[in-house]
Backbone:
């Protein structure tokens, strides 16, 4: 996920609050603070701003009990991320699922759909313990909706009713809003009611319970914010 589409300040707030024993749902399990600051080792397009705090921070602090994700580890052997380190030591659990199936499980929770069949996963570890049925001769795995207690999403603009507008790719941010009991949106700007036109509202406010505006001056340490 792009750093500009990541709810960094909400992740930092969870870390400061001391929440632990978490089951985290994310397309990837993050780099963590130390890895994000190794700027010299990244290509220019991969470098993170100073106020980028991803879910890897929670793994680094030992707060995550289980990750449900498509990418539990990084793609470079030279960099081992916090979740991968804890996974190797047997300190966390992981449920790996294809990115499309993960998105659909989240969307199903938002739409009130209990489960769905997908042709992705039969004959692999993804199908272990799950029902498999054949449709037109093709095996399909039954995947269930993935509900959450809290969804942390990142948008660029919101109004005071919680209507959200995103810049750029928004698949998981948009999908996750409404798939949880409480959706909290981190935004760059809160605009007056009526400023977001109907075609600009990517997520209606009915799916959002809280809106938090990002500070104007970027933070450099997740512990320094209050």
Residues:
């Amino acid at each position: 996920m792009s750093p500009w589409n990541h709810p960094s300040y909400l992740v930092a707030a969870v870390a400061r609050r001391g929440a632990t024993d978490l089951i985290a749902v994310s397309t990837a399990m993050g780099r963590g603070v130390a890895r994000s600051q190794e700027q010299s080792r990244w290509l220019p397009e991969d470098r993170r701003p100073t106020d980028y705090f991803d879910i890897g921070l929670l793994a680094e602090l030992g707060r995550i009990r289980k990750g449900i994700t498509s990418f539990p580890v990084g793609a470079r052997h030279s960099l081992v991320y916090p979740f991968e380190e804890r996974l190797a030591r047997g300190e966390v659990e992981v449920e790996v699922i294809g990115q499309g199936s993960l998105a659909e499980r989240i969307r199903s929770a938002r739409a009130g759909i209990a489960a769905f069949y997908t042709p992705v996963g039969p004959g692999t570890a993804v199908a272990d313990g799950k029902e498999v049925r054949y449709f037109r001769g093709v095996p399909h795995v039954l995947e269930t909706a993935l509900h959450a207690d809290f969804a942390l999403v990142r948008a660029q603009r919101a109004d005071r009713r919680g209507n959200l507008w995103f810049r750029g790719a928004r698949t998981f941010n948009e999908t996750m809003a409404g798939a949880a009991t409480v959706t909290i949106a981190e935004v760059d700007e809160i605009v007056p009611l009526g400023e977001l036109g109907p075609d600009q509202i990517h997520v209606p406010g009915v799916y959002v319970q809280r809106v938090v505006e990002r500070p104007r001056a970027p933070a450099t340490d997740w512990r320094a914010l209050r």
Summary: The first strand starts at residue 22 and ends at 28.
